[in-house]
């Protein structure tokens, strides 16, 4: 037995890296077979790069007012025209991407940060702990999502922080319920019983062994929630409850040009198209991630 143990190759850090690389390449092949998912990756990746490189991509100062050029159509100087203050629409869309991702990342992170541990503890503990946490989640879900966000933003005032809180609280129950359902299924499996027999604490079993098995549905939910957060931020900004002017926000751009649609309808077309496109991209990306985590895809 000792000779067999000595002959058995040890698992090294290089093997771990190779396993992750091979898994990533296999996931890329699955997404590449799904053209719609690949299209979603391209959309999201393009807008993410646009947000990161906004100062280098914008052709004009996004906040420069030029009344003489107000409500102009697309031209060689202003590719997508100008708004009611003569600001370049393309440049504001570019900087609006940075605003959209900034709000989405903060809101989704806040919702996942609180929702995932609550759902894990609820599913793993059971009994009165499970009942208490789920009743709190039910109370939050009893309010319509947009109405709750409007109430929270109106009470706290506009700005990034209030949007984080409003949209983050709104998404906590969904993460808690997803994680709870997976944990309920995982905690009955043999590896959990084996870990208990070796003396592992419930904390280590839950957060180091059970919770990693919840990643697949969580990643899908995260990709979808990014699109939901961007749409919610645009809706709140359109209602005047989001980021204050002159912030470059897609929803605020729509709100500002609404009174001038008869004079220049293209001023609202491009922000609306951008919002629809980014949400489509995240939805297609979510479908692609679902395929990645489907074991049947790797049998082909």
Fold and architecture overview:
The chain is mostly helical and 300 residues long. Helix content is 72%, strand content 0%. It has 13 helices and no strands.
Q: Kindly provide the radius of gyration, computed on alpha-carbon positions and rounded to a whole number of angstroms.
A: 24 Å
Q: Please estimate the helix content.
A: over 70%
Question: What fraction of the residues are assigned to beta strands by DSSP?
Answer: under 5%
What is the CATH C-level name? Mainly Alpha
Alpha carbon gap, first and last residue: 39 Å
Give keywords.
single chain, about 300 residues, mainly alpha, about 0% strand, disordered N terminus
Q: What is the fold's blueprint, element by element?
A:
Blueprint: H1 2-7, H2 13-33, H3 35-52, H4 54-57, H5 89-125, H6 127-141, H7 145-156, H8 160-186, H9 190-197, H10 202-210, H11 215-238, H12 250-257, H13 266-292
Helix pairs in contact: 2-13, 3-5, 3-13, 5-6, 5-8, 5-11, 6-8, 7-8, 8-11, 11-12, 11-13, 12-13
Entry summary:
This protein has 300 residues and is mostly helical. It has helices spanning 2-7, 13-33, 35-52, 54-57, 89-125, 127-141, 145-156, 160-186, 190-197, 202-210, 215-238, 250-257, 266-292. α5 (89-125) packs antiparallel against α6 and α11 packs antiparallel against α13 (266-292).
């Amino acid at each position: 037995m000792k000779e067999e143990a000595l002959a058995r190759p040890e698992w090294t850090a290089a093997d771990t890296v190779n396993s992750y690389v091979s898994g990533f390449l296999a996931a890329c092949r699955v997404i590449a077979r799904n053209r719609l998912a690949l299209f979603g990756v391209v959309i999201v990746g393009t807008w993410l790069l646009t947000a990161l490189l906004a100062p280098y991509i914008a052709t004009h100062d996004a906040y420069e007012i030029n009344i003489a050029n107000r409500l102009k159509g697309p031209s060689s100087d202003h590719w997508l025209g100008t708004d009611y203050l003569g600001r370049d629409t393309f440049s504001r869309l570019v900087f609006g991407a940075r605003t959209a991702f900034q709000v989405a990342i903060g809101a989704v992170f806040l919702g996942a940060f609180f929702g995932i541990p609550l759902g894990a503890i609820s599913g793993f503990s059971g009994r009165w702990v499970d009942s208490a946490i789920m009743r709190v989640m039910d109370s939050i879900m009893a309010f319509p999502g947009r109405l709750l966000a409007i109430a929270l933003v109106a009470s706290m005032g506009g700005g990034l922080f209030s949007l984080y809180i409003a949209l983050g609280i709104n998404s906590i129950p969904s993460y808690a319920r997803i994680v709870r359902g997976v944990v309920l299924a995982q905690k009955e499996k043999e590896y959990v019983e084996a870990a208990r027999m070796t003396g592992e604490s419930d904390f280590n079993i839950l957060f180091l062994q059970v919770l990693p098995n919840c990643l697949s549905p969580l990643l899908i939910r995260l990709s979808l929630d990014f699109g939901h957060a961007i749409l919610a931020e645009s809706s709140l900004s359109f209602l005047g409850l989001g980021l204050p002017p002159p912030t470059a926000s897609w929803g605020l751009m729509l709100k500002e040009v609404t009174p001038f649609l008869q004079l220049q309808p293209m001023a609202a077309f491009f922000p609306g198209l951008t919002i629809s496109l980014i949400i489509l991209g995240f939805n297609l990306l979510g479908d692609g991630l679902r395929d990645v985590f489907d074991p049947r895809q790797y049998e082909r």
